[in-house]
Amino acid sequence: MARYRGPRLRICRRLGDLPGLSRKTSKKQAPPGEHTEKIRKPSEYAVRLEEKQKLRFNYGINEKQLLKYIKIAKKVQGSTGQVLLQLLEMRLDNTVFRLGMAPTIPAARQLISHGHIYVNHNAVSIGSYQCKPGDLITVKNQIKSQNLVTKYLSFPGLANIPSHLELNASKFMGKVNGIIEREWIALQLNELLVVEYYSRK
């Protein structure tokens, strides 16, 4: 996957607070670029594009993956935007991040790809793995893995664990109890604009 490896704070300055991408905050308030003083009112397309980019950078997915999630969400009954967010939130890398086992989603993806995370007692090395209600997420029973997660658990990326997740920090264990509700999604976003962006293409 062609992941974004550039400066993360630049993206946060342009798109606003992205809790999944970086914990740092910039001292600069203006958006990046040398022509920031000449900002005009953005077009409707620009507004939709910005919302779509927020999703992409926060969850660390590329255009092809996001399009795939949109197609799946359209086939499911209910609000397409809400289903899309639920699909992205139930990814394993995001679930590990929301449990507090990693400070950001890229850090969670690294933990997973290096084999530190088990799902239902089976090693899973794919960050995009879709978690289901009832899944048990555990840390590999090795001192190195547990020390790494202990360090992250003492400084979690987000203050609260969502209601659909349950964490037992002493046993390095998390459980998915259900599907996330809209109010627990940390990203400030209008998901309908993302759906509109793809429906007009």
Automatic annotation (TrEMBL):
Gene Ontology CC: one annotated term: small ribosomal subunit
User: What InterPro entries does its record include?
Assistant: Ribosomal_uS4, Ribosomal_uS4_bac-type, Ribosomal_uS4_CS, Ribosomal_uS4_N, S4_RNA-bd, S4_RNA-bd_sf
Q: Which SUPFAM superfamilies match?
A: Alpha-L RNA-binding motif
Domain annotation RNA-binding S4: ranges: 90-154
* An MF annotation (GO) of this entry: structural constituent of ribosome
**What GO terms in the biological process aspect are recorded for it?**
ribosomal small subunit biogenesis; translation
Which residues belong to any copy of the Small ribosomal subunit protein uS4 N-terminal domain?
3-89
Superkingdom, taxonomy of origin: Eukaryota
Which Gene3D superfamilies does the record associate with it? Ribosomal Protein S4 Delta 41, Chain A, domain 1, RNA-binding S4 domain
Which portions of the sequence form the region Disordered? 19-38
Q: Which family is it part of?
A: Belongs to the universal ribosomal protein uS4 family.
Q: Which PANTHER family match?
A: 30S 40S RIBOSOMAL PROTEIN, SMALL RIBOSOMAL SUBUNIT PROTEIN US4M
HAMAP family linked: Ribosomal_uS4_B
Know the name of this protein?
A: Ribosomal protein S4
Upper lineage: Eukaryota, Rhodophyta, Florideophyceae, Nemaliophycidae, Batrachospermales
Query: Gene that codes for this?
Result: rps4
